[in-house]
């Protein structure tokens, strides 16, 4: 790296036209607009706004979400919780914590923040209870109920009652309520509506059975971005955990949950070759764009090139994106920069040391914001 570039990056600012590619640039106006729309929706429907930081993994971005009305943050792993505890004192770890080392960390962190963990096993409950008792702290528990995804979560309401009772009996744990992830509910608003009504009935039945057993259920927490703006159809919910919607991506765009112009994050990449007929190569391979295909449009390629919509990113290797430009009326030349909206922005952010924040779409200067929780896999 040249001395000039190194100095510029050390100062955490750069020009979007001269910073080395590939780089992830976020349009600040769009991102903050996405944040505010979600916060306003939650306020309107009396829902706690607890955004999932897995998408941005940035303390500075989290501060924007909290300032807009976020009452807490969601993380996936304990390492992310450690990072986000520096800016927020109300955290949910939306992932089973079962091993001794992580339970010890959770119990220690619970001294400093109000902490909840979503679990679906007696193994997790007993491990967390033991760690909290030894640490002299209290850990909040949300019991994970599978509502249709089939990934984690107890398979019946009576199972949640049994686990909740076990939590309630542990002096070092606090039974806070239910956790669910309706990631299987996709489609249009009209298509989502009956499925969300079914979810509402299922959660109501669970809450009724808890109440009959004298079990508290103050929190009922749910994701996801595709259903976020329909959460009012499930009145049992007290909070939602949208993640991807802050930046949006092709999954949400082609799924019909946002417009292309709502996508705040783009990969700026450079054309490095056009030697093969009807093909260009970009300097953003699987180490930048990830290998994830677009769920609603799996044959669309590995991202959308904004300046050349007819082009198709047909293949990724580690450092190369091979782009079919045979359908393009005109083609990018070697050295030209193009911007790519990725299929799955959450993975792309985790591949970067920093995001480059652009205050407005026309501002030439960009500012480096660290991806603070990058690589926190445990």
Describe the structure in your own words:
The structure is a single chain. With 378 residues, this protein is α/β, with parallel strands linked by helices. The protein has 2 domains: 11-25 and 252-370, Lyase, Ornithine Decarboxylase, Chain A, domain 1 (Beta Barrel), CATH 2.40.37.20; 30-246, TIM Barrel (Alpha-Beta Barrel). Helices cover 31% and strands 22% of the residues. The chain contains 11 helices and 18 strands. It has helices at 3-10, 28-44, 59-67, 78-84, 100-109, 122-135, 157-169, 189-212, 250-255, 286-289, 345-350, and strands at 13-15, 23-27, 48-49, 73-75, 90-93, 114-119, 139-144, 173-180, 219-222, 239-240, 265-273, 279-282, 304-305, 312-316, 321-324, 337-341, 354-358, 365-370. Strands 1, 2, 11, 12, 13, 14, 15, 16, 17 and 18 form a 10-stranded mixed beta sheet that branches. It has an 8-stranded parallel beta sheet with strand order 3-10-9-8-7-6-5-4. β5, α5 (100-109) and β6 form a beta-alpha-beta unit. α5 (100-109) packs across α6 and α7 (157-169) crosses α8 (189-212). The radius of gyration is 22 Å and the shape is elongated. Mean pLDDT is 95; it is low at 1-10.
CATH architecture of the largest domain: Alpha-Beta Barrel
User: What's the CATH superfamily of the largest domain, by name?
Assistant: Alanine racemase
Q: How many domains is the backbone divided into? A: 2
User: Major sheet, described briefly?
Assistant: 10 strands, mixed
Class of the largest domain in CATH? Alpha Beta
Mean pLDDT: 95
Q: Total strand count, please?
A: 18
Order of helices and strands: HEEHEHEHEHEHEHEHEEHEEHEEEEHEE
CATH fold-level topology of the largest domain: TIM Barrel
Net shape: elongated
Structural class: alpha/beta
The level of helicity is 25-40%
Strand content: 15-25%
* Cα-to-Cα separation, first versus last residue: 32 Å
Helix run count: 11
Low-confidence stretches: 1-10
What is the alpha-carbon Rg in Å?
22 Å
